[in-house]
Write a sequence for this structure.
């Protein structure tokens, strides 16, 4: 069994009995539908016929058991009652089939959605780096729906086609073997044609489905970046891009429908041909006098009944093709390995308590050829502050990403309080490490709920304390609804700086052992940033802080500063020691001090002046 069939089988776990019951109901319902046909057949060939001996012994036996031909001829209404009763019984079983297959499919899909959502929460960042959000959404919605439709209607249809065809065969053989052969002559052709068609549909649908994924992705990207699109007058360009993708989707969809139309016409030809064969050959034997009229009627009606589900095999196989594509796409999410959550820590020992961090010869790449971090080694004490400095792209955020174990380094070890980070349980490690990003995501909830997200059990006082350290408490109180202010989607009703400060409060409320501020105060004015860092310093010893920022004036109190360039550490020390040596730190410091003093006439003059400028201590 290939993986997708195995996955379908596995997902059906717990519901297989229901499906079995649905298929059994279907078989019973179908059997009753054929029994309905036997009533007029027996009436015509035995009860009303002048030559009842021509009818098959099976039918004559049944008529005898029901009271004999004379009795039934005198009570013809019994045939009507018989047909109605048998049809009603068939209808009841059809209802049971529908009910059980619908319940089973809904239950399977509910489980599937839960599994998908859970899996998405646990997939490594590398997976999300490569995946397009819109495509993931499409897999979790449209593909799941395709699969649901298949489970709800088509699985049972497969059973139906087989049963509808298989059920009357013994009856047909008992009635007339020649007519049985004539009735089934073209059936293998229809089945083979359906299978060939199924393969073509599967590849065509795969293209349509992928195009739909791209459509969703483009839409999602456009909506997320709507401000950028407007600001750069990119509406026309975006529209053209969407038109192109939409046009391609339409073309592929059109091809799929064309394929279907072709299928229906050919299979109609086969189906009608099969019926015409029964009418022609049966009619000939009827006129010849070797086929009783009731038996002729039975075969004609039976072919009409089973040819329909067989013709529907095309649709069933089409849906199977689509479902297999969908489950393949869903399977790619479900079967992707999760983030490793290894735990090799001895039971009972507290892994992270002080928050001392050490990097030992850590090298890392996101998958490209170049190393993003190249043999990085440093150590900091628990409860102190580390500042990371360096040009954009030098690897600062990557250090933060590794600490949060969004990624694992290819070489070297990262240890916290002497424990290898790779050996700590992911959940536990992340509970102790909080981070604030440059563009924090806030939920469409109240400010209180957003902050409480850091720790759901946080009391009001603790929320206020965290907000005070993050210098946002007073701002929040100025809002009409205070902490009950609702944050708009993606926090658009707050300014960038306010959002960053709320996110900081959210990180602080959990009292993290390690706090990472990744350009987290970039939208906050210098004065407030200094206030916040000062407040964090007053908590000294309570947490280890790793700050990535650009304004040196706010970083100068850090216990240790590391200057990175191209993924390597080029300078390391305290503010004083770094100012004392020639290098990037002193150059940036001089530049920023000149800017702050307003003594800068133009950039070049300062850059030129840097080598001549002496030490500029506090
Ligand atoms: P900094 O924070 O110093 O600006 P980063 O650590 O964000 O630098 O990035 C370092 C390098 O890694 C850059 O060249 C960047 O393009 C690359 N990079 C960052 N994130 C990813 C990612 N998710 N996938 C691939 N490359 C990345």
């Amino acid at each position: 069994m290939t993986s997708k069939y195995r996955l379908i089988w596995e997902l059906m776990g717990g519901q297989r009995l229901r499906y079995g019951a649905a298929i059994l109901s279907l078989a019973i319902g179908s059997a009753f539908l054929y029994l309905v046909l036997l009533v007029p057949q027996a009436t015509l060939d035995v009860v009303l016929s002048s030559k009842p001996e021509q009818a098959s012994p099976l039918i004559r036996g049944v008529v005898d058991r029901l009271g004999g031909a004379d009795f039934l001829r005198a009570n013809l209404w019994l045939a009507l009652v018989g047909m109605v009763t048998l049809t009603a019984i068939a209808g009841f079983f059809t209802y049971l089939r529908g009910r059980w297959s619908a319940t089973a499919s809904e239950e399977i899909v509910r489980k599937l959605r839960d599994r998908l959502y859970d899996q998405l929460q646990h997939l490594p960042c590398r997976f999300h780096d490569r995946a397009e959000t819109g495509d993931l959404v499409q897999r979790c919605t449209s593909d799941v729906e395709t699969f649901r439709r298949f489970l709800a209607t088509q699985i049972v249809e497969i059973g139906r086609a087989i049963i509808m065809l298989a059920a009357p065969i013994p009856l047909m053989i008992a009635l007339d073997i020649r007519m049985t052969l004539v009735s089934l002559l073209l059936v293998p052709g229809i089945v083979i044609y359906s299978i060939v068609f199924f393969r073509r549909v599967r590849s065509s649908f795969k293209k349509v489905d992928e195009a739909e994924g791209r459509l969703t992705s483009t839409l999602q990207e456009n909506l997320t970046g709507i401000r950028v699109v407007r600001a750069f007058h990119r509406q026309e360009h975006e529209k053209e891009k969407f038109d192109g993708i939409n046009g391609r989707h339409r073309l592929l969809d059109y091809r799929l429908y064309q394929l279907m139309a072709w299928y229906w016409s050919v299979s109609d030809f086969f189906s009608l041909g099969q019926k015409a064969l029964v009418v022609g050959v049966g009619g000939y034997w009827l006129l010849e006098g070797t086929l009783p009229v009731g038996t002729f009627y039975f075969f004609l009606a039976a072919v009409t009944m089973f040819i329909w589900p067989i013709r529907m095999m095309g649709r069933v196989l089409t849906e199977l093709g689509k479902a297999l594509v969908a489950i393949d796409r869903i399977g790619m999410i479900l079967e992707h390995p999760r983030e490793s959550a290894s735990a090799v820590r001895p039971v009972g020992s507290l892994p992270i308590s002080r928050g001392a961090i050490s990097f030992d010869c850590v090298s890392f790449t996101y998958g490209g050829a170049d190393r993003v971090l190249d043999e990085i080694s440093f150590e900091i004490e628990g409860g102190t502050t580390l500042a990371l400095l360096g040009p954009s792209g030098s690897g600062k955020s990557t250090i933060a990403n590794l600490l949060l174990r969004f990624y694992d380094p290819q070489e070297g070890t990262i240890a916290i309080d002497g424990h290898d980070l790779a050996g700590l349980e992911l959940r536990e490690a992340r509970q102790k490490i909080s981070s604030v990003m440059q563009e924090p995501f806030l939920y469409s909830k109240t400010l209180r709920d957003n902050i409480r997200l850091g720790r759901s059990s946080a009391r009001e006082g603790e929320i206020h304390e965290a907000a005070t350290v993050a210098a946002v408490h007073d701002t929040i109180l100025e809002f009409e609804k205070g902490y009950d202010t609702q944050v708009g989607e993606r926090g658009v009703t707050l300014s960038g700086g306010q959002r960053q400060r709320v996110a900081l409060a959210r990180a602080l409320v959990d009292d993290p052992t390690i706090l990472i501020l990744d350009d987290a105060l970039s939208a906050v004015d210098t004065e407030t940033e200094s206030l916040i860092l000062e407040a964090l310093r007053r908590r000294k010893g309570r947490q280890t802080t790793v700050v990535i920022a650009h304004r040196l004036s706010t970083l100068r109190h850090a216990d240790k500063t590391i200057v990175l360039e191209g993924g390597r550490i080029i300078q390391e020390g305290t503010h004083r020691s770094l100012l004392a040596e020639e290098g990037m730190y002193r150059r940036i410091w001089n530049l920023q001090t000149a800017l702050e003093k307003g003594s800068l006439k133009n950039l070049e003059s300062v850059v030129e002046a840097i080598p001549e400028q002496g030490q500029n201590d506090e």
Q: What stands out?
A: The CA atoms of residues 383 and 542 lie 6 Å apart. The longest strand covers residues 357-364. Residues 129, 366, 372, 390, 392-398 surround adenosine-5'-diphosphate (CB under 6 Å).
